[in-house]
Every structure is written in structure tokens, then in C-alpha cells.
Amino acid sequence: MIYNDLNKIKSLISKGEGIDIEFKVSKNSLNKNVFETVCAFLNRHGGDLFLGVDDDGNIIGVNNAEKIITEFNNLANNPQKLFPTFYFYPEIIKIEDKSIVHIFVPESSQVHRSAGKIYDRNSDGDFDITNNNQLVSALFIRKQTTYSENKIFPYAGMSDLREDLINKVRRLAKYEAGENHPWLMMSNEEILQSTRLYQKDLQTGKEGLTLAAILLFGKDETILSALPHHRTDALLRRQNTDRYDDRDDIRTNLIDSYQRLMAFVEKHLPDPFYLENDKRISIRNKLFREAVANCLIHREYIDRFPAKMIIEKDRVVFENANRSHGNGKIDPLHFSPYPKNPNIARIFKEIGFADELGSGVRNMYKYYHAYSKQQPELIEGDIFKMIIHTELITPQATEQATEQDAEQAAGLDERTIRILKFCKTPKSREEIQKFIGIKHREYFRKNILNPLINSNLLKLTIPDKPSSPKQKYYSVINLKE
Q: Before 337, cis peptide (omega within 30)?
């Protein structure tokens, strides 16, 4: 969960430690038992981990937040420290001139170990259940019944999967991460085992390929045998709103499903000109990549409701069956990302089809302003619905906005105009502060920089990481020299 609301963070800390909140001092480096807590949160119901806070809730701060985050991420990807490994999205929070690190740990579909031991969570903290067969069995049963992607098909074998799809995933992972990706050194069977697509039920003794493995890599006949109702419907409804103008009835694996949905988007939706760091990118693909991936990753597959992507005159509607964790519209700034099918999500992330848990929605809101005049709508319920409005910002509208911005500039004070002209190219906080001759950093940030950002006069080059040391700011108003 990413919190931009400082009051929300303070409210959580004020509650004190409990079943879903944990404090660690980690002043100069991570506490040795940090990953015992991470493991316990993953195995139980998730929670919020704060680094730089003592047991009594006092803000101690960490000396080098970026270093702490790097250390944490490296260990989270080390199977000797956490197995199976997991992806997190730590954030730096400033409180009382001190930096703390907040890490939201979601509930996982898998049973995790830290340094070879299984930890669970209760109100008193983390406890080792490795040698308690009853508690371990109950944990495996809870995970198995919670996530339908883990359903085991003991009579399905490698011959029921498409080897070419596994090789395709290898190539995509290599393209995404480089020559050192571990999948390049693994056999097909080892990839399935390492990604929990091949499992063993400790209660029944059943072992074999999971539903996730079949959905990702299965032959079409295998998928329809395991899940006869599996379907994703892509529809174009602009002229014939009762039926459709164009359709792709998709009943195949999730890798090909993703690419066919994206091809349907590219066929029927425009791609306005957009520059990012002086390089043109496809704003359409940036936006719909997240929506299409969400539709496939977070679907409740045992539900017979067919997933749909419907392109209408002025909007695109996605619908899919959902294991709901709430009801109503989602606020992108204050929401808990729940992993509906984490094993499927991991494959999609490794091959570049999706981002880390929760960051996909943030990216969608990052780019929507360049595509549409209205924000996307995300509605949680038994049927999850996502609406992306496609009333494009046309070149004429952009020119009009630029003229209005120039008119508004006439009402700005002289110092603000100097800053905006200076930031025609991105500048760091230190550069702007030096340019206008203000030495006090906090005064500058509170009374000058933040008001310009909040007024949308300055934009961040790294909007999803506002505390990044590489952050720079640029003007969105065209002013004559």
C-alpha cells in the first residue's frame, strides 16, 4: 500500500505494533530479524513494516534510506533469505525532518520461509512454526483454498503444455533482465517448480501442475479441459451498440491472450504524440498495458463470468470476475493492492507484461492525463470494472491550454516566473534553490517548491518516487524569454 497522505502514516504508527503493524529501528542497516516479520506477514494476512521506528512508536529515522531500500530489495530477491522470493515497493517517508522506510507486505498465495524456517504472525509478533506439523498443515490448507490458481491437476503432465511458450517466456525474460536471468539456466521443469507452478498438497499428497501453469503454458485443449468456461471477449461497439462492429473471442493461454488483447487495442484506438525525456513513447500502450494485464492477472478464474474488454465510442470498459476485498470506487492514492493470482503475476512481471504489485495502477494514473480528459475509474466488487475514458486531448486542445497557461502566467509573481523559465529543462532541488539564492532547504521546500508542485506549475521527472535523490522538476508553462 502506497500512502501519499502523511496523516495516514502517522495514524498507523500511533496504533502501535500488532498483528499487521511492525516497527524496526534499522538505523544504519536492516535488523537481522526483518525478514522473519516479512515472512510472517506474507504467510498471514499481510501488514505494514516501518523501518526507523522503535518499539514504542518513536520516530528514530534511518541514516541512509536509499541504502536501506537497496539492501532490503536485494535480500527479498535472495532465496536463502526469503523463499519463494517476493517483490516489494518500499517508500521513503519524511516525518519530523527524519526519514523512515515504509514497506507494505501483502498476503501471499504461497507458504514462505526465511532462512529455511516458516514464520506465522499473531498479535504478539512473529513465531516459528517450522516443527509444528499441525500449524504448517493448516497454513498450506489456507493458502491452497484461498487462491484458485494453486489448484493441482495431478494427471496433467509436461506433454499437456506448450514447450514453445516456455521458450518464449525465457526469451522475454532475457530481453527484460539480461543474460543473467536464472530461467536461462533452468530446465522447463525447474522453471515450473521455482515459480510454484508445480506444487504438492501436504494434506492429500497430490502433486502436479497447477491451474496457473495450465493457464499460462497449456495447450488450448488442455486449458478448456481444466477450465471449460475460460474466455476473454474483446468487443468493438461504436456503430452497432447492440452487438458489435468487431470481435476477438479469445480462448487460449494467457501469454497469447495478452498479445491478442493488445493487438485489438492497437487496431481500434489512437496513439497521440507523446514525449518522455525527449523520446517518443506509445502513451496508448503504456496505459492499456496495465489495464490488459490487470484483467488477466487478477481474475477469479473459477468463476464462470467471461472477462470482457469493450471498446465504445468514448471509453473502454474492462470487466472480470473478482475475489473482492472491498466495494466501490478505488482511490489510487489510498488503496491496498491484493495479489489475486501472485504466481501468474510473477510470470507477467518477469517478462515485462506487468509491473510490481500496486505500481500498475499508479502508472496508469501517471499517464492518463496525456491520453484523456477524465481519470480512469476502478470499481471493486464481485465483478471488477475498469473504465478508461478515450475523449482524447487533441492538438487543438493542447494549444488552447498552452495559451491559457501563458495568460495565467501574467498573474504570477516575478520570482515564480523566474523559476518556471529556469525549469524549462528539468532542474534539481539544489539547482533551483541556488538559482534564487535561498539557503534554508526546508523553508524553500515548504514555502516555494511544494506550492509550485501543488499548483501544477512544476512537474516531477520521477512522479512515482517523489523522494528520489535523482528527482528533478520542470515547468509545464511556456513563457517567453
A: no
